[in-house]
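Researcher: Re-running this chain for the archive, since the previous output was lost when a drive failed. Same request as before.
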Amino acid sequence: MTQTVLITGASGNIGRHFAKAFEAAGWRVRRYQRGTDLNAAATGCDVIVNGMNPSAYHDWKTLQPQITAQVIEAARASGAVILFPGNVYVYGTQPGPWSAETPQIPASRKGQIRVEVEATYRAAAAQGVRTILLRAGDFIDPDEANTWMDHGYLRAIHKGKVTSVGDPQARRAHAYLPDMARAAVALAERRAELPAFIDIPFDGYTFSTADLTARLSRLMGRDLTITGFPWWMIRLASPFWELARELYEMRYLYDHPHTLSGEALARLIPDFQPTPMDDALRTVMARRLPGAVRA
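Model: Regenerated structure tokens:
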């Protein structure tokens, strides 16, 4: 029997890749149109992917709880399981590897908001609304230049430079979105076996700016250099530009080494095969700087 998934935020990074992965796995995919009746859209669905996110961090304190409540209500009405892409903001500056057992001690306002959102999902699970939280680090999107891979690391790659947004030696968690989406589908297909609420880290790739620079230098056949990110410009713009203010608050994440534990994911979907990192970078670079990377 064909299963049905509703994707909210279907035009965003998460929504686009999750929709592709569910379609590739044979699911019927519905794309939610923002502003329409979410409960009606979810009727008959088996899974709801909550890919909605206020753009440019706008008014998170108000909008994140509102979105969460709407999705939970739609899941309660339809009986669907929620699939929620989590992030690493909830852990603050604790040492890794981070997992579901790591205490949530956020170091930012947005981290505290995410702690409260996740607590809402946990509370709903106790009342019968089930949630799979798939947690990831910074996104790597092969299709669109709207993640920190492009805005950060690769912003000056055409000049032979890799940009270090923070400490160039700090190894950090990253998620190649097509892989994360495939993992999400695999978990959705095993939803009947899972607890009412489950927090699963997606370990993805862990690398520093120095690691990335060495790897890209090899793939491109040329020596690349590391340059710094102009945080001073972001700081100066913060009083007048909402996005700059919100980005500056998260600066600590680019200096703090962190990894996500892959143990839970490996246990639940042991046959999952991630894309080799070199292949992922070739795909990204083919979009960013065609012809720069050797096959």
